[in-house]
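re: ur question from yesterday

yeah so i grabbed the chain u mentioned. its 220 aa long if i counted rite. heres the sequnce exactly as i have it in my notes:
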Amino acid sequence: MAKILAVDDEPAILEMIESILNKDGHLVTKVSDPLKINMEELHRYDLILLDIMMPGIDGFELCKRIRALVDCPILFLTAKTEEKSLVNGLSLGADDYISKPFGVMELRARIHAHLRREHREHSVRMVLGRVCIQISQKKLLVDDKELPLTKAEYEICEFLAKNRGQVFSKEQILEEVFGFDSESNDSTIITHIKNIRAKFADYDYTPIKTVWGIGYKWEE
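ran it thru and got these structure tokens back, copy pasting raw so excuse formatting
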């Protein structure tokens, strides 16, 4: 059982989320007014669902504030799928997004995948050229300086680095890193890769290469 915070200004959406996730044994706390979230209680939750378009404060600003306080997975619920919106949201520390309207199976699969990822054991340190990955601490360093990756960005780097030289499609990365496979969410991986490369660019370094027509690989 996981404790999940769902924030959305549409009561019907919250009721549906609660109904779906209760069947999996999860305890859902519903909040329809984002300004009434008890920030001191955020550490109690294993996962947080955030709508983007809300009155008072939007999901992006709320995500930024929450990420500064807790390390649990944050997933956006959004009807906005423009690339600019996704880049903005994921760069603020969100792990993933679910487009509205979403189905029962998709919501359950996404929640299960991110919760499962949180409980994986990490116990290795890898050094790949200029990069050092401290898996037990979920940190990636370039030239001994920590790269400020979000949780999802780190997981993608870790997976590709562990399998360096191998080419993976966007669908395979979704399946291996997040635990689900959905062609409709390729943009999640595309956006994360773009954000990762932008951070590596500060060091004039690009270990993640694009293999056109196929996918990505860690080349070192």
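noticed a couple things. The chain has a mean pLDDT of 87. also The first strand starts at residue 3 and ends at 7.
anyway ttyl
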